[in-house]
Amino acid sequence: MTSLIAVDWGTSSLRAARIAADGTVLDQRSSARGILTVPAGGFPDVLQETCGDWLAEPSSLCLVSGMAGSRQGWREAPYCACPAGFAELARSLAWVEPQRIALVPGLSCESDGVPDVLRGEEVQVFGAIDLLQQRDGVYVLPGTHSKWVQVAQARVQSFATFMSGEVYALLRQHSILGRMMPAEDGPLAEDAFTQGVRYAQQSGGLLRSAFSARTLALFDRLPAPALASYLSGLVIGEELRQRSDAVDAVVLIGAPALTQRYALALRTLGCTSRTLGPEATWRGLWALARTLE
User: Which CATH architecture has domain 1-76?
Assistant: First the structure.
């Protein structure tokens, strides 16, 4: 492999990077051509439009992670069952062009007889493991559907999904709570946010605590501009309450706007964290490519 073409192809966007054999990111590109914008059979053309010049390089390898490997994407890459490490993931690649272009599978696990899945986040976790050389621990990926991933011996043992981002959006935009808040979120009100995090620990559950966003406003105990931050604290605090067995020290992976909130929530509860950003994806795909050599 002279170079790796690493592609993170999600629902609404596409990111690509050209990575040297030693792991150096040489160039990056992005577009709004997420899988929902690609017509049936159009994935090869979109990939060629995005990085055809990179693909023309002899001996280049292209690994594609994310929703391109879903049923709605280019081709389904069946989930790889946990526990799984680099070797299991490599064996489960779905090759579009043998030894040249492959789709990275997501991971699946069972909890209490119910399946759980992730697709794309597995690459970020493995990239974080390689970057930090931390073979054991809890990796948290905040988002619309937050993932809590348990890692031991550099292998994903299990994980759990929390619909925190989606629930926040529903409460913020489509419930009576949102009517008491300004139309647009302002800067994070840290005091209100941490108040929400703390109340979530004692309220018994989000169905009970959520209404406090209304009553605190009714009794003028929180100003309207701070209510969204308080609600965010309630939702994230509920997520942390349910993972109280795993919040001693975690690695956060994701965009700064979200990881900063989670880091603040964790500090509020006396927990420590480390943070990584988009570099985890490129490192994960590069580390996976090394497994194939």
Answer: 2-Layer Sandwich (3.30)
